[in-house]
Amino acid sequence: MTAIQVATERGVDAGLVAALLDGGANPYVETREGLDSFLLALLCGKADNLTVLLEHAIAHPPDDHWLTNWLRSSGLSNAPDEQATFESYIAAIADADLVNAWDMNGHSLLFLAVGRENQLLVEELLRLGADPNLADPLGWTSFHEAVRVENVPLAKLLVDHGADIYQTVSNVSPYSAFSSSGGSAVAHNGPLIPAMNSLHIAVGANPHPMDLEARARLSPDMVEFLLDLGLDPNEKTRHTSALQVWDLREEEAPLQIMFRPWRYTWSPTFFRVVQMLTDRGADAAGIADRMKPDDVAGFEGYEALWEYLRAA
Which of 34, 38, 267, 276 is most buried per CB count within 10 Å? Predict the structure, then answer.
């Protein structure tokens, strides 16, 4: 990525963005995923950076860019206040018919906005008619991404706009192997396509079981939200042993995914989700058999849960 791309993606101080532009940085150049600095800044949501970039576009209008026609028709001579600037970007996106456009990973602007947890942009894109069920080549939709980032309000907003809660994905990551966007899909072998639903994602079907941050990240609110929507606590993954993910077996229900060795730190939050699943009759078959004697000590204070697992 170029310096201006990094600056706008990370939302650095507007003075630095202005200095880069004054020094000749080109905000129209796209990343490998096909995103220019204007879109990166919009996804980030830092209003003053959007203003600086729009001022640059007015002073140096692009010949062939999604802002071009809108800038010509709007007749803007300088960037308005921050709210009006944001509205200008939204108007330009609508004018250029980018509402359901996607990047080189197959991710729509809506998907990317959800991933950045930019609720204002998500709301505007949905208002313009963005499709929450557009899927990337791996099956990931904006709803799956809301589950992945554990943002219940965004997930609810997407459901209210028609998101399919039962759609499955064929990989544990929404990013292809060549992506620089924060993760990689893992390869799978064989003719059978793996399938996981949003509840499997919420309880930890991801490619990094040794990642300490991932082990500490678990949202009881998201799991409860999905269960209340009607996701089956006993539905199993399909063909997931074909994925090159450590210890993700052929068919595993949510509770079995949670008890993969070293997957989660056993904390009150962890046991709250376990209790939530068992209260709804979650399949615990084989979990106790996979445990070592030392693991039993981790159930101190949760003896009833241990008995539930042992009896399965």
Answer: 38
